[in-house]
Each structure stands twice: as structure tokens, then as C-alpha cells.
Amino acid sequence: MRDKEITEVVGAVIKDGDRYLVGQRAANKSQGGLWEFIGGKIEPGETPEQALARECREELGIEIENERIVDSVVHEYPEKTIRLTLIECSPKVGSTPHAIEHQEIRWVTQDEINSLEFATADRELIMKIKRYGYVGSEKQ
Known about the structure:
Layout: E1 6-16, E2 19-24, E3 35-41, H1 48-60, E4 64-76, E5 81-91, E6 104-109, H2 110-113, H3 120-132
Parallel strand pairs: 1-5
Antiparallel strand pairs: 1-2, 1-3, 2-3, 2-6, 4-5
């Protein structure tokens, strides 16, 4: 039985062809140095899509489009429980991402994702996405 409140967060699967944009968490943050899908906490009154658009502006300096909720996972960390909702999207034409909140951002292929160490909740989503086969292809 949970005695912790669930924190709602969003993560972006930002695609450019067969590559995905991921960010490396700042060393001074929780799970510092690990890789993640760009995103963050949903603020009161925001939809997941609105939160993701805001987070992409704040963390990457870009506008996004073609948002589509892909999946979500609940993960219990020692200090909190989160529900991470993953949203597939693409940068608007002319939007070039920059590392604002992350140590580094990188475009990676699905195979290259396997070589990076991801935050725990993100790893769970990567496994689910690969199992159901809809990152890198259209979900039917």
C-alpha cells in the first residue's frame, strides 16, 4: 500500500528521422549523470501536452508539434513515487534544441539508446516501448 502521493511527470520522445533526442541529467540533480527523455513535472492545471511543451521550451529552447501520448509507467523511488507519461513529438520546423538544463543532449538511434545509462523510470519505458514496437515505427 502506498503512503506517498504520486508526482505526475512527462517525458518527450522527440524524433528526427530514426534518431531520438535524450538529455544527460545535471550532476547536482537526483540521478545526476544518467540519461533521460526530456521533460519534467506537470504543474497544477496543465495537461500532459501543455507541460511537455513548457518543459521543451525551458530545457531545450524549442517548440514542439505532433504530440501523441505513447505510454506511462509508475515508478517508486525511495524519496517519491512518479507517474512518467511519455509523449512522442517532433520539433517545429526551425527549432534547434540546445542543452539548457542538461549536461549534454544527444541525438541517438534506437540501437545507441542501449549503450546509455538511463534513469530508472526511463529504462522501464524503453523496455515497454521496445516490447510493443512503436518507437521507431507507427503504432497501428
